[in-house]
Every structure is written in structure tokens, then in C-alpha cells.
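Build the 3D complex.
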Amino acid sequence: MATTVLHTTVLDSLGRRITSGDVAAGTPLTLESIGSEFGVSRTVAREVMRLLEGLGLVRSRRRVGLVVLGIEEWNVLDPRVIRWRLEGPGRDSQLRTLTELRHAVEPLAAAGAAVHATDGERTELVAAARRMRMLGEAGDLEEFLALDVRFHELLLRASGNEMFGALAGVVAAVLSGRTHLGLMPASPVPEALDQHEAVAHAVADGDPRAAEAAMAAIVGEVRAALGGVDRQV
Amino acid sequence: MATTVLHTTVLDSLGRRITSGDVAAGTPLTLESIGSEFGVSRTVAREVMRLLEGLGLVRSRRRVGLVVLGIEEWNVLDPRVIRWRLEGPGRDSQLRTLTELRHAVEPLAAAGAAVHATDGERTELVAAARRMRMLGEAGDLEEFLALDVRFHELLLRASGNEMFGALAGVVAAVLSGRTHLGLMPASPVPEALDQHEAVAHAVADGDPRAAEAAMAAIVGEVRAALGGVDRQV
DNA sequence: TGTGGGCTATTGGTAGCACCTTTGGCAAGT
DNA sequence: ACTTGCCAAAGGTGCTACCAATAGCCCACA
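Done.
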């Protein structure tokens, strides 16, 4: 995202520290303290501070400094905040809430894709599903993951709603987090492969209902595996 | 959000200009041009630039300046970006994509609320639904809107998923946009009032399925009224 | 025609200043 | 003891000036 190293270093460090709860809400920081701790100038500290303020992690008040805000003020949908929280101690709960978000969004996105996807997207989706079966049966987890990510991103972007498309990065993080956390079976279950193909074909056929149902099955299963909270499908 | 006027002025102006398509993707800006146009120093221009970069609206490159990015790079879920787009020419399409997002999220949030809401939230929800009926039948649109916003915010915040809670502002914007754009009937249709009460009671009773179904009915109807795209409920 | 090297525009980062708002404490009066 | 009001310091807000690094662009030369 940011091309520069300096800002990202300081920003990531502070962002992680706040989102992890390492510094509690209400704690005051100052530009001075940031600058001296990281050995950067006031200017850089100020720019980082503005970013953090934009993310709702902190509010700057005169004479007080930057007071850390509570989670209800955070832009929890911002990719950076999501990343920090996934790297922090609340990883599991974050994975749960993100999965719930997927559960909400992806079926509708699939339905949208069935209506709005271009011809190229439809064929690529079908091809991706087919290759996923091959890789899944071969047991190549890393390659499978990459393709899985690609599949879901393609679908979200093809949904005709850029709000859904913006969640592609989130879904990628969830998928990757899941496999690298060992929450995935050694080789994908056949049902998942079937359902991915079902989604792809429903989209290719322009059948929004079928696409939505198949996607709901995919994400519903995942949710159950993660220890679903409510609503059994 | 920002306590200062200067940044917000410049930021809003540039943000609106970009999100409205007034300056096309690929257009280069420079700190110099920003500073001189708005009569601010380089420092302020830089902070604004960082913010815009964080929102994915521009990318800063040396020797070139800030190149405006295409919509696929934008953080379209960020409250500021949403606000700008709602104020710009693409308002109707933005309202459509946001409504679709509501359609995806709110039913699941209702189900979550049925499981996770506190006692206080449940009773307030029921009370809000009852007052909405009174105000709706009285025809007081402004008051009704305020309560409608409160109802949905309460529900999203009670869902037990802060991702959903973060969308409260979005829903508020959509609701308010709808009534102020004259997309609402002079007095709320009785079905909507019934369904709001149904949601409230399902949440109060701890019945996630019923809450989800009732909320789906609310938001599904809205979608149809706005000129639904696919999936007829 | 192609390629390498230098020029320069523009961001990246630093330092230090003046200003203004806020706030916490102190003092005086009730 | 409690309130009121004033004052001083703290710390963000905004500005200017300056140097470093990098990357696009053009020109000279092969």
C-alpha cells in the first residue's frame, strides 16, 4: 500500500499495539513520544497520527495528545485494521467475525455475479473450479489456497457491486489464515470441491438462485467447521 | 471526525473531486498544486495526501506526484468514501450498492442480535419498533427516520459482530438518503411497521431464524422498491 | 535505431518556529 | 469547605526552509 518504509513501520507498530489492546482505550500518546520512541521527526509522527485518526483508532485533542479510542470507534472494515487484528491475539475471534461477514456477503455476491459477470469472468471461474478439483485431489495445499483465493476474488469482483469487490482482500486473508492456522483438512473435502464447481456453473449459466444457494452451502459449512454460533444450516 | 477545519476542507474537497470522477484516474496531482490551490502549506498538503493514499484514492510516486487511482483501488467501504460518493453524481448507483450490502448483512445481524443482544438492547428494540408505528401512523417523517436509524443501529451493534456494527453509519446514510430523496412513501407502509415489530419481538424472544426472516423481508422490500436487479423474494 | 548517462522535478524526511486551545492548578473570595 | 476565576504550561496546528533520494525524461553518442 504505502510505498515508503518509514511510515508503514511506525504505523504498523502503533496500529498493532492499539488493536491488540496492548495500549488500552483512553491512554494518551503524544507526537513527542511517538517521535522519540521510533526515532522519527515530528512530521512523520504527525502523518502517522492522522492516519490512525482516520482509522478511528485515536482522536487528537489539543493539550492532551492522542487518546486511544475503543473498538466501537474503529474502522473495523478497513483492510489495515483487519490485518492488524488478524496478526494479534484476537485472531480467532477476528476470524470468526470475518467468516460471518463472508457468510452474509458471498452468497449475494454469487447471485450478482450470475447476473453481471462478463463472459471472460464466467469461463475463468469454471476453469478455476476445475483446477481446484485437480489440485485438491493431488493434495497441494499451497497451490490450492492460491486458486481458492483467486476464485473468491473473481466472484466478488464480478458481482457488479464494488462493495463486495472491496472485500476480496478480506476473504483472501481469511482463507490464508485458515489454512496456515491448520484449520483446514489435509486435503479439501469433496463436498467443497463440488460446491465450488456448482457455483461456477451456476454463474456461467446465469442462474442467480443456484449460485446463491451453492455459495451459501460453501460458506455455511466453513462456519460450522469453525464452531458456528447460531443458526444451523 | 477531524477536529480541525483545515484538513477536512482540503480532504473533503479533493475526496469529492476524485470520487465524483471529476478528476479522472491517472491524473497527476502535486503537493505544490494542492498547496497553492487551497492556500495551505506543504505540511497540510502532505497529510491530506497521506490520508487520500490510505483511502486508496491516490498513489504517491516520486518525480510524478499523486496519481489518481481507479475505483477498483478505492476503499469503498470507508465511511468517508461512502459519504463523498453519496454526495456526488453517482448517488443513485451508490444507494443501490449500499442497499444490496444491507440486504446481505442485516438479516444475519438480526439473527446475531437474537442470540447476543443484552436485555437492555432487546427491550429498547421493542420499544423503538412500537414508537415507530405510532410515529409512522402520525405521518411524522423526520421523527420516524430518526427512530428508524436508531432501530437499525441498535440491531447492528447488538449483533455480536463489530463488523456489522461498523455498518451502522452506512445504514443511517442510506435511510436518510432515501427519505430525503423522496424515495419513501408519504407515510410508511403498514407492512414495514409490522416487520420491524416482528424483528424486535424475534430478537426479544431469542429466535434467530424468525429475526433473520423478518429482517430479510424488510430489506428485500426496500430493494424491490428501489428497482431490484436480480433475485425476487 | 538503440542505449546509457546525466538532469531535474517531486516526494521523503528533518528541524525549528509562532500560535492557539485546552486544561489543571492555584489563589482569592464567599 | 466550596466555588469562581485567572494563569501558565502543555501539546496539537500550521508554517517555512532545507537537504536527500529517486525516478522519469531527454539528449548525446555509438
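Residues 226-233 of chain B have pLDDT under 50 and may be disordered.
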